[in-house]
Design a protein that fits this description.
Blueprint: H1 11-22, H2 27-33, H3 37-40, E1 42-45, E2 48-51, H4 59-72, H5 74-83, E3 109-110, E4 113-114, H6 115-135, E5 148-152, H7 159-167, E6 177-181, H8 186-193, E7 201-206, H9 213-232, H10 240-250, E8 251-255, H11 258-264, E9 271-273, H12 290-296, H13 298-317, H14 324-338, E10 343-349, H15 356-368, E11 386-388, H16 400-405, E12 412-419, E13 425-426, E14 429-430, H17 431-448, H18 452-457, H19 465-468, E15 476-483, H20 486-507, H21 518-531, H22 535-539, H23 543-555
Parallel strand pairs: 5-6, 5-7, 7-8, 8-9, 10-11, 10-12, 12-15
Antiparallel strand pairs: 1-2, 2-15, 3-4, 13-14
The protein binds 6-O-phosphono-beta-D-fructofuranose.
Length: 557
């Protein structure tokens, strides 16, 4: 494994520094001076039409960013990832989410095994299961077909499935719904099950490791709920045999640890496996997406995977100068390291994508929120910006004020869909067009702003002119797609996976481990006895933690 290149020592970095220092952002002027600016900086990747022209770039900046990518070895790292090398060094693993969407018949030998046939065997098992649930062939313990699947998982075993399920609502089979339980707050499982009929509910316990406290606790709570309700109504008898039969009909699992699935009491026949070379946050296209496959059906799920694959091919095969994920990742580096932007907003103009920013938070921040490089040495520059966002136009009436007029630069990605699922009209107005007009207006306002003279020309009293000035030059990327199909959702996810990868390569970090989540998990287990009344354990805590727990114990009814 090669050593990470310190990006700050490269000639391209020095060039970018110089370009940054010399730059006087002037999107108004740049657009006026160059009528082909939009054309020059617009790219496509599969179905994605990506306009970078409202970013603070010129041809020299893009050239220097591509040089930077070459000088830090992006192409070599990318090829190593696709080839199954162990680029996740701290866990000594290959990183092969791209194999999950490789077509049947292709081949990828990793550590002596061709993984593609295994991927397709699991997919076939997931699809067969999905078909059985959808057709009513899979019935609960009392013979009722399944109408609700409840995915129990957290992090990558939740955020991807719930986001995609929400995004693809028009493709969900009528009469079938999915719900998602993730939080160990008992409210989550209680609220998500309270109106369900246990006889027609099927739980999918999704956990890569099958050790995650939240998921196993919720799975036990769900099992208790199922058995209590079935016994209460007389649907099943008391006793272990009846319980086992009910669990077999109402619980399936997805995990890389099939031994632990069996220990939980789920028949391994009803378990779907995957592999340690799939990171949790990169796993929605593995069996972790079983809830989605059930909801939208195997054919749509296959289209979803094809969308990922189309972007994989684009990322793997397109020269960097027009490689959309690489360029978007490099642009993020430009803003984080040269403009000191600490956050990045993703603003989908699609209600169906309302969970996309939350999904991206894990993908990007668990991947690149690191202070050491993959050889253990400290990073040499800022890494890991905060990703956040809300669907337009809700965000416009909340936080866009800060994006337009605040003191921080917040690069934004706007995502718009040409064809709506619901082409509603309000009088003579096509409401989707009004919606998209907001997208286009916001990106124009952010880029071009409004000068003091323009404000004055509207008759604004001089005293409030400054408050009404929009500085402009606030960078945005516009991503347009024809419609929110399963394939396009796959393309969008793969786009951001590879953006994240590109940033991680520049910074020299292992984007595929997540050691930063471990300490809190360990401490929670140590502190739990103190919360439950163990005074000795309480005495071992710091004074702040002691007083918080004491407050809790005094208030708990
Ligand atoms: O929070 C850390 C993490 O390991 C994530 O990376 C992962 O997606 C999540 O927990 C859930 O893990 P598992 O699928 O093993 O239950």
């Amino acid at each position: 494994m090669s050593q990470p290149v310190d990006p700050t020592t490269t000639p391209a970095w020095a060039r970018l520094n110089a370009l940054n220092e010399a730059m006087e952002p002037d999107l108004r002027g740049w657009f006026a001076a160059d009528p082909s600016r939009s054309k020059s900086f617009t790219f496509s990747a599969a179905d994605l039409y990506v306009d970078l022209s409202k970013n603070l770039i010129n041809a020299d900046v893009l050239t220097a960013l591509v040089d930077l990518a070459n000088q830090v070895g992006l192409v070599e790292r990318r090829d190593a990832m696709f080839a199954g090398e162990h680029i996740n060094v701290t866990e000594d693993r290959a990183v092969l989410h791209t194999a999950l969407r490789a077509p049947e018949g292709s081949s990828l030998v990793v550590d002596g095994t061709d993984v593609i046939p295994e991927v397709h065997q699991v997919l076939a098992k997931v699809y067969a299961f999905a078909d059985k649930v959808r057709s009513g062939e899979w019935v609960g313990v009392t013979g009722k077909p399944i109408t609700t699947v409840v995915n129990i998982g957290i992090g990558g075993s939740d955020l991807g499935p719930v986001m995609v399920y929400e995004a693809l609502q028009p493709y969900v089979k009528p009469g079938l719904q999915a719900r998602f339980v993730s939080n160990i707050d008992p409210t989550d499982v209680a609220e998500k099950t309270k109106d369900l009929d246990p006889e027609s509910t099927l739980f999918i316990v999704a956990s890569k490791t099958f050790t995650t406290l939240e998921t196993l606790t919720n799975a036990r709570l769900a099992r208790a709920w199922l058995l209590d309700k079935l016994r209460e109504s007389g649907a099943i008898e008391a006793g272990e045999d009846a319980a086992g039969a009910a669990v077999a009909k109402h619980f399936v699992a997805v995990s890389t640890a099939l031994d632990k699935v069996a220990a939980f009491g789920i028949d391994p026949e009803n378990a779907f496996g995957f592999w340690d070379w799939v990171g949790g946050r990169y796993s929605v296209d593995s069996a972790i997406g079983t809830s989605v496959a059930v909801a939208i059906g195997p054919a749509n799920f296959a289209d979803f995977l094809a969308g990922f694959h189309a972007i994989d091919r684009h990322f793997a095969e397109t020269e960097l100068a027009s490689n959309v994920p690489a360029l978007m990742g490099l642009l993020n580096v430009w803003y984080v390291n040269f403009f000191k932007a600490g956050s990045h907003a993703v603003l989908p103009y699609s209600q169906f994508l309302h969970r996309f920013p939350a999904y991206l938070q894990q993908l990007t921040m668990e991947s690149n929120g690191k202070s050491v490089r993959y050889d253990g040495s400290p990073v040499t520059t800022e890494t890991g910006e905060v990703f956040w966002g809300e669907p337009g136009t809700n965000g416009q009436h909340a936080f866009y004020q800060l994006i337009h007029q605040g003191t921080q630069m917040i690069p934004c990605d706007f995502i718009g869909v040409a064809n709506p699922a619901h082409p509603l009209v309000d009088g003579d107005n096509d409401v989707h067009e009004l919606f998209l007009a907001n997208f286009f207006a916001q990106t124009a306002a952010l880029a071009f702003g409004k000068t003091a003279d323009e404000v004055r020309a509207e008759g604004t009293p001089e005293a409030i002119v400054p408050a009404r000035v929009f500085p402009g030059n606030r960078p945005t990327t516009s991503i347009m797609v024809p419609e929110l199909s399963p394939g396009v959702v796959g393309e969008l996810i793969a786009l951001y996976e590879h953006i994240t990868f590109t940033e991680g390569v520049v910074w020299g970090i292992d984007s595929f481990d997540q050691w930063g989540v471990e300490l809190g998990k360990q401490l929670a287990l140590q502190i739990a006895p103190a919360v439950s009344g163990d005074d000795e354990a309480l005495g071992k805590q710091d004074s702040s933690t002691q007083s918080l727990i004491t407050y809790y114990r005094s208030q708990r009814k």
